[in-house]
Design a protein that fits this description.
The chain has 390 residues and is an alpha/beta fold. The protein has three domains: 186 residues, 2-enoyl-CoA Hydratase, Chain A, domain 1 (Alpha-Beta Complex); 45 residues; 75 residues, no CATH class. The protein contains 14 helices and 17 strands. The strands form five sheets. It has a seven-stranded mixed sheet, with helices on both faces. A four-stranded mixed sheet has the order 12-13-14-15, covered by helices on one side. Strands 4-6 form a two-stranded parallel sheet. α2 runs antiparallel to α12 and α6 crosses α8. This is Peptidase.
């Protein structure tokens, strides 16, 4: 039986899944004698705040500031985001910890890849992947690849020199580009490259003292040259074709990166895969789109659901009420969900026209549309720390 099936059969609610995640983090820390920070975003949910940003830096800073352990492991899964936020996080964790390792079992793309490359050690499962390095920039109303943008501009420049003109469409597009905009794009691209060239020799190659084959003493110049070769590969978009391309262990090793294979350690692999599975189940059964957690504390990012729950007793809620709107016809439904086995709650709310939160999380509207309330149940249980009684 796979881990996903195992956990699904247990029928754990979001609160129980979050407790299981923190239990697994504690188990991981004992095995590795380190302090594990989990930072994971749900790549399947199109939410603006899903990307790595400065809010994440402040949360991570707060979680780690009182930690006395000197070995930090970071489980990371992110679509990317702010290079500046990545830089702030990296500078802070290396200032505070003697050794920093990154654990990748899902996707750590773009700015996530930048962060992983700052680790003294990179540990990956067979399912884990990094991605090409590229700054994502805002042009007009669209977010585009800085590399692709500069490639297009250079192509049009060469075309204009060769033909002494551009076609009307391209000429119109080029006319809208300001020198300042071009300079900003170029700087954004160089920023990511410069960080990797600085971080790899300083951190990843810190203990690289002799070459594996010839046993030649490794110089700082050799470390810098290797870093430049790796960066050249990671920004080679003509080779990778896509900003979202997944680069697995073999491809990364072929570039010159040394990767520790988690699957070679059965105990470690079991914990890491369980952490990954539990996080996915939390994402899929609730409106949670981002999790930052240690063995003792967690902060989750939650998207607004169809109906917003309101606690009737904020300190120790016994029941919450909801206003759920059908996305098809707009009809409103008043629901209640209780946390204690109190029949009077049912009587009182049903007299006021409320319906009990459905056991199967399905609300059938009069228009025929079926509303899935699974994410709302997950959000309620996550925010209150209590399980809804069916």
């Amino acid at each position: 039986m796979g881990l996903l099936s195992e956990y699904i059969q247990k029928k754990l609610g979001v609160v129980e899944l979050e407790k299981e995640l923190m239990r697994l983090i504690k188990e991981y820390n004992k095995l590795r004698n380190s302090f594990l920070l989990v930072y994971s975003a749900c790549l399947e949910k199109p939410i603006p705040n899903i990307s790595l940003n400065m809010d994440d830096y402040y949360i991570i800073f707060d979680f780690l500031k009182n930690t006395e352990v000197k070995n930090l492991d970071v489980y990371i899964e992110t679509p990317g985001g702010s290079g500046e936020a990545a830089e702030e996080i990296v500078e802070y964790i290396h200032k505070k910890f003697d050794k920093v390792s990154f654990i990748v079992s899902g996707e750590a793309k773009s700015a996530g890849t930048l962060m992983v490359l700052c680790g003294h050690e990179i540990l990956m499962t067979e399912s884990g992947s990094l991605g090409p390095i590229d700054a994502q920039i805002r042009i007009g109303r669209s977010t585009v690849s800085a590399y692709d943008y500069m490639e297009w501009v250079d192509e049009k420049r060469k075309e204009a020199v060769k033909n002494d003109k551009l076609n009307p469409f391209d000429a119109t597009m080029v006319a809208q580009i300001s020198p300042g905009e071009l300079n900003g794009v170029s700087n954004a691209l160089d920023f990511a490259k410069d960080l990797v060239i600085e971080w790899l020799p300083k951190y990843k190659f810190k203990n690289w003292v002799k070459t594996e084959t010839t046993k030649k003493v490794v110089t700082e110049e050799m470390k810098k040259k290797r870093a430049e070769q790796i960066v050249k590969e990671l920004i080679n978009h003509k080779k990778w074709r896509s900003h979202g391309r997944s680069l697995k262990i073999n491809e990364l090793e072929n570039m010159g990166l040394k990767i520790a294979k988690i699957d070679d350690d059965q105990k470690l692999a079991d914990i890491v895969y369980r952490i990954q599975t539990v996080i996915k189940l939390i994402f899929h059964s609730s409106n949670t789109y981002k999790i930052t957690a240690t063995e003792k504390e967690k902060i989750v990012g939650i998207a607004n659901p169809i109906g917003k729950p309101v606690n009737l007793q904020p300190k120790e809620p016994e029941v919450v009420e909801l206003d759920v709107v059908c996305p098809k016809c707009g009809k409103h439904y008043k629901l209640y969900a209780k946390f204690i086995p109190n029949a009077k709650i049912d009587q009182d709310f049903q007299k006021k026209g409320f319906k009990k939160f459905p056991t199967d999380n399905k609300l059938n509207c009069e228009c025929g549309f079926e509303i899935d309330l699974t994410p709302i149940r997950g959000q309620i249980e996550s925010q209150t720390g209590k399980k809804i009684i069916d």
